[in-house]
Amino acid sequence: MLMFILRRILQTIPVIIGVTFVVFFIMQLVPGDPAVLLAGEGASKETIEAIREQLGLNQPLYIQYFEYLTNVFKGDLGVSLKNSQPVLNEILVRLPITIELAFFSIIITIVLGMAAGIISAVKPYSLTDVSVMLVALLGISLPSFWFGLMLMYFFSVKLQILPVAGWDSLLHVILPAITLGAGGAAIVARMTRSSMLEVIRQDYIRTARAKGLRERIIIYKHALRNALIPVITVVGLQFGALLGGTVLVESIFAINGLGRMIVDAIRMRDLPMVQGGVLFASLIFVVVNLFVDVFYRFFNKRIELN
Amino acid sequence: MKERNKPILEVKGLKTLFTTKRGVSKAVDGIDFTLHKGETLGIVGESGCGKSMTSLSILRLIPSPPGKIAGGSVYFKGKDLVTMSEDEMRKIRGNEISMIFQEPMTSLNPVIPVGEQIAEALRLHQKMGKKAAWDKSVEMLKLVGIPSPEKRAKQEPFQLSGGMRQRVMIAMALACTPEILIADEPTTALDVTIQAQILELIKDLQTKIGMGVIMITHDLGVVAETCDKVAVMYAGNIVEHASTEQIFADPKHPYTQGLLNSLPKIHEDQDELITIDGSVPSPYNMPAGCRFASRCPYAEDICATHQPDLISHSEDVKVRCWKYTDKWTGKRDKEGVV
Amino acid sequence: MDTTAEKNIILQVDRLKQYFPVKKDSIFKPKAYVKAVDDISFELFEGETLSIVGESGCGKSTTGRAILRLDEPTDGKVLYMGKDILTLNKKDMRKLRGDLQVIFQDPFASLNPRQTVKQILNEAMAIQNVVEKSKRKERMLELLGYVGLPPEALERYPHEFSGGQRQRIGIARALAVNPKLIICDEAVSALDVSIQAQILNLLKKLQKQFKLTFLFISHDLSVVRHISDRVMVMYLGKVVEIAEKKEMFDSPLHPYTKALLSSIPVPDPTLKRDRVILKGDVPSPIDPPGGCRFHTRCPFAAEKCKQEEPPLRELVNNHFVSCHLAETLPV
Asked: Which SMART domains does this chain map to (chain C) (predicted)?
């Protein structure tokens, strides 16, 4: 197991380098010369050339990339073109907010999703099952910008029990986290249900019944652990979708997180900021995937053998 | 000696139906048998004859829906399992009546250590503490011949071979010293040298514990080597019931005869095997008469129209066939058709 | 049975090896292989049935697949009528597949569920181009007749048939191309005994009718006893014994064969036998025991058995065994 975790961590290194590579070269494809942009309208050819020299933009691309890479590993992500502050500082301020949002959203995805899935699977095709799955279908179908606005309208404007926007207290987390987590919860619910129904048909569940165990123990001890194996993978994938969703949700609820930062930076053509933001978002994704893999392995030791 | 005691299990007119889109299938259609302490009953038949459904019906483990016990009773120590509450039934499963299944590969929970899978039955039924139950499960693993049981108990099923998994299943089934063990094709998925080990083990433990065994199998060799008496099933019915010696020496029902004839013999050479022509009728559309009539070399008019009862032919033999009644004319025999 | 000397060899397997690489769990460990078939040689005579028996993992099915090049063997030769099959190019191999046919255990899995029996048979004939288009229908009806299926079967799909009937379709498809050698890989193992008897009778009848050679792979010794002329026993990728059927069943020489034969449950309650029950499980083929591979479970194993691999040698006329102690063991 330890060997596996170690190997899995080593495997992320080429992935991270690959990410920097993609991030760097995509930025090269963006039209417009940063030196021209930086020099401002009507700058002389010499000034532009000087800026280019200063930023190393006249070097061959691979040298530029190499420099960028060494800087990244040194923790230097460049300075914002907008306010000349180091990009890293800005990210470190924004990142915890997004992580907090993502954390509560994924909790909602997991808890709500699995609970709904189990409730459905215990009595398949019953009224409860059908209603839960109908709600889940709605959850998948509703676009989050609309769903978020509806929540905001109902709970903040009409009932006035939750704050409209911003990021000050735990109360502020509730609506954005529900908006962000709902779609995932619906997918996890459907996955949990079908996985549970599959597992309940297995021979070892019959063995557990033949042992005289109570239905509750059969469901929670014998069935759930096996049913969760495919669900974990889905949760991992949902986390990726969730990161993408922060961009929207942070904009709707006016939260100063990483997603909104990237959107603003794109609007301002602040390339180093976009680069840094995307790099960090990718890093989070890689780390989460690492956890999912280790978790998966823990739950399903059989794959060690195959 | 067997007749003197009261049986520990008495199945009377047990009926199990399956309702699907294609109609109602009579998987088990009114069967009767008894089992005594220390005795081994074989239930033998080909796929789809209802032998596995019979065993699952006894413990009320048939998947429902679509399955349902539609009638009859199963008396265990005087109480009817069919009408018992689910709570009472649970106290019997795995405690007084245990079951082992055909597929040792899939019958154990893949993510729970095998020792825990045995121990949970002990904690449940014997009200043992955690430590005591674990120690007892290690002891059970040792009893069924698993080397280094302390280490194995902590392992998960995928770390064990097929033969060892079936030993674990047996250890689990016998942990609470049941009075009846139902073994549903316990060796079918195993290699022949491992099969020999497992059959030997079951026999051995049976004498130690003194339990009754119901051996469900399609293999007449297994029946001959392990059973005291045999019920032959065909299309949801018992067609013949007799002692093992009797059934192999002098099978009465034409189906039993056909089954024995179609076996390739290990100790003699034959040019051609004797076969049973045709195939089993669909469970959704059973004929009105004897279910074997369309394949039977002796069939007469009455066989096609009226189903025979399971009648006592002699003291030890019951057979479901018109041939052994006074309704039988013996026309085809005389005409030399057979 | 004639003495083997007069018979033509149709297939000769020479030092066949089939190793499958195992996924490594550490980059520091050397590459491991499952030695599924490890250096075996035998020959098959025209018109006979040679059975390969053994327990799961002994390499019997792998041998069949290697001969057909369904998996490319690691090493060795497979001479069919003197020509090495393993060196043939794709085109020549395809031509040869008309001569070599196979019948699998699960007829349902090996028949295309979307094709009618007619399409299945037609396709087999078209690939080998054995029958003119105009005569194919006639030939199909003839084939159905051989395997005991009614002419109406042509227009039906595999799922409309029972297990035994599907196996008959599989046999008809194999026969469609006029094969000389048919490999039956557990061909009757999935069938109920009464149906199994029908298929065994059919195979025997067809063998006589078309002078077929069978390589019959099975784990069921009673079936093998019924159908074979000669029997070959395998254990952990090695041949442990080859003999004529009667010889093998009446006087087996290898301790493994003896244990195997005595393990079969016999449908005769009056027969009380001295049973040899082997201890333990078959070792892993990834790292098989050195010396004789059976020594870990052999009740007679001596020091020599742990050190030296026994060669396959002819002990009695046409009776080969690979055991150091074969002469000295109790009968």
From this structure: AAA
